[in-house]
Amino acid sequence: MMRSRILSVLSACLVAATVAAGCGADVAPGSMVPVRPAERPLPGGVKLDPEVPKENKDNDCGDPTASLAPSGTSVPSGSTMDEIRKRGRLIAGVDQNTYLFGFRNPTTGELEGFDIDIVREIAERLLGDRSKVQFKALPASQRIDALKDGSVDLVAYTMTVTCERRKDVEFSSVYFESGQRILVAKGSDYKKVSDLGNKPVCAPAESTSLTNLAKEDPPPDLIAVDDLADCLLLLRSPPTTRSWRAWPSRTRACTWSASSSARSRTRSASPRATPTWSATSTRCWTTFETTNGTSCTASGSSRCWVRRSHRRRSTGERG
Amino acid sequence: MAGLLGLMAVLGFVTVTTANTKSDATWELAEQHEPTAADVQRLYRALSEADATAASTFLAAQNASIELRKRYEDDIAVAGPTIGLAAVDRAGDPRVAREIEVIGRQVPVYAGLVEAARANNLQGLPIGAAYLREASHLMRTEILPAAERLYDIQTERVAQERDDAMRFPYLAAGLLLITLIALVATQIYLWRSFGRRLNVGMLIATGALVVGLIWSSVAFVLHASNAQSAEPERVAALAQARITALQARANELLTLVARGNGAQYEDQFDKLTTELAGKDGSSGTLATAREGAEGEVAAALANTAGATRSWLEGYREVRELDNNGRYDEAVERAITEGATGSTAPAFAQLDAGLERALAASRDQFVDDIVAAARSLTLLTTGWAVLTVVAAGGVAYGLRQRLREYR
């Protein structure tokens, strides 16, 4: 009698426990892998809040492009030219990433471009041999420092002559004139510079492009990179890194192309080549600061290309 | 009697599980954790090599060989299976999951960038170099650090598993001691109460436990001493030396890619080679590895000092050439395999030496661990049989005494 009661209590408990276990919280089908969107990386050396080179009104030097007059072709002993001759090679700071100006031809591995040809020309005049050049690739931000610390003899680079820069280095006479252009993706809605207010715009660090962009109202969100080519990477595929604070997903990227007046600094030999060249761009639509007559405004995408390749051929013939 | 039998049952359960876990853990160490750590190390190596190879291909321009391309592809192909394996071995470690996520996500992105660079290079467009720089930046700032952390976690796990395997089994030993004392006490009690000195059943039980005690002691001493001589630190030190050498090599090539603007890579190279070979070329991680090495490891490491010296000398010549404007010769010196005075064969010799040493030292480690595991062979079954015999003995011995009451 006793035993059967215990048994029935036991089985009742068991049933209760089974029912209670079945009534536990619902388990929804889950996933073990958190899905996150792909992150496109940033090129090295990207600065999201770059320091903009200031324009100082006190530095007004009149016409910044006024050149030193060469004091003849003689090379006095003890001069910089003499040192270079004694060394037997010219050390030139150049760009190795700007197509057709100073770039490394990926097929041959050789540096080529307009600035490179200028340097070779100088070497020929100074040393009698175009090949006696040691090239040092520099990012735009180190052009002036490299000249100052003497690690290069001259810099041949797409570099705008400004009074600010003339305080630190000397420029040759202008051998190339061009404007600065903004490059945007095809089919973008940007029609003028003010459309870019508070939009991410990329330019090389410590370039005049940054200074000019910062003067705009409203100013764009500036992004500085080491090489102009990095801007093109950002334009082609905008990064989606979480650290990228100001990159609205719908915005098409826009870069500031700094194909500015190219000048080199030498004490004497200054080649007389003055071809004009438009921006390295797939579509130029506005002229921001033109230092020469040529411009390719509005929807001049095909014109840009035709013009540039045409000029390229003409300078190529020049040597 | 019931108390003594219960004690026996618990003892049997504890000793069998202890012996079983220990033996399993040791085998697992040799068969799973150590290979996983080595594979993750190989992954790190493959990824660094992919980065260095991409740089070489870029430097060699049109002279880039199909072998270089193949080496790069083989290196990338290692990544997927390895992180899959590491995931299997992760044992719920959230750190492992995190690193695997980084590598799993970013390696395809890296490979995509390298292909973009290649496509642009083939078209003669210099933007290819920018893609390559971006790829290298991604590799060096995200993927490699994640692979290194993953390797550290795996190395740590190997060391930890080894220490666990060597730990003294307190619970089992304590229980065994208590049971033995209880057995002896019972026998003394029986002797006092019944005046019988020898109880066959109890004697068999005591004998079984004493046999177990001696067997286990010998087995565990052997196990511990074998596990002790397997030093995961030595394998880790060699792996570290190899990784350091590879990183230095990648930096050497990048100084040339940067073309006169590679001060940061030069600094890195100096830092890494100092770590590897010391300031005077005869200390650093390599020398430490050589000091404690014996047998095959020592033989494999014998050449590395010379190889390192000629590599560093070659590097200085490459820098000298580059700094004197002879860039093309510098590039040739750095990447041509088989040329005299070139850094490529010197580095290859160093790397091969380290690879052999690493393999030999892994061999030693696994041999020791397997020897440790073997010393526990049959101990599980042994304890199962012995405790059953002991329990049987107790039951038999006490039943006789109990029967006398009836």
Termini separation of chain B: 16 Å
Mean pLDDT of chain A, to the nearest integer, reads: 71
Q: Roughly what is the average pLDDT of chain B, rounded to an integer? A: 86
Question: Number of DSSP strands of chain A?
Answer: 12
Helix content of chain A: 25-40%
Q: Tell me the structural class of chain B.
A: mainly alpha
Q: Helix and strand succession of chain A?
A: HHEEEEHEHEHEEHEHEEEH
Can you describe what's shown?
The complex is a heterodimer of chains A (319) and B (406). Chain A has 319 residues and is an alpha/beta fold. Chain A folds into two domains: 102 residues, Periplasmic binding protein-like II (D-Maltodextrin-Binding Protein, domain 2); 124 residues, D-Maltodextrin-Binding Protein, domain 2 (3-Layer(aba) Sandwich), CATH 3.40.190.10. In chain A, 27% of the residues lie in helices and 15% in strands. Chain A contains eight helices and twelve strands. In chain A, strands 9-8-10-7-12 form a five-stranded mixed β-sheet, with helices on both faces. Chain A has a four-stranded mixed β-sheet with strand order 5-1-6-11. Chain A has a three-stranded antiparallel β-sheet with strand order 2-3-4. In chain A, helix 6 links the parallel strand 8 and strand 9. Chain A is elongated and about 125 Å long. The C terminus of chain A is likely disordered. Chain B is mainly α. In chain B, helix 7 runs antiparallel to helix 9. The radius of gyration of chain B is 30 Å and the shape is elongated. The two termini of chain B are 16 Å apart. At the A-B interface, strand 2, strand 5 and helix 7 of A face helix 1, helix 3 and helix 4 of B.
What are the main properties of this structure?
heterodimer; A: 319 residues; alpha/beta; D-Maltodextrin-Binding Protein, domain 2; 2 domains; 5-stranded mixed sheet; 4-stranded mixed sheet; 8 helices; elongated; B: 406 residues; mainly alpha; 14 helices; 0% strand
SSE blueprint:
The complex is a heterodimer of chains A (319) and B (406).
Chain A: H1 2-22, H2 80-87, E1 90-94, E2 97-98, E3 102-104, E4 111-112, H3 114-127, E5 133-137, H4 143-148, E6 154-157, H5 163-166, E7 180-184, E8 200-204, H6 208-214, E9 221-225, H7 228-236, E10 254-257, E11 263-264, E12 284-289, H8 301-318
Parallel strand pairs in A: 1-5, 1-6, 8-9, 8-10
Antiparallel strand pairs in A: 2-3, 3-4, 6-11, 7-10, 7-12
Chain B: H1 2-60, H2 66-88, H3 94-122, H4 127-166, H5 170-194, H6 200-229, H7 232-258, H8 263-277, H9 284-292, H10 295-301, H11 304-323, H12 327-335, H13 343-374, H14 379-405
Helix pairs in contact in B: 1-2, 1-4, 1-5, 1-7, 1-13, 1-14, 2-3, 3-4, 4-6, 5-6, 6-13, 6-14, 7-8, 7-9, 7-13, 8-9, 10-13, 11-12, 11-13
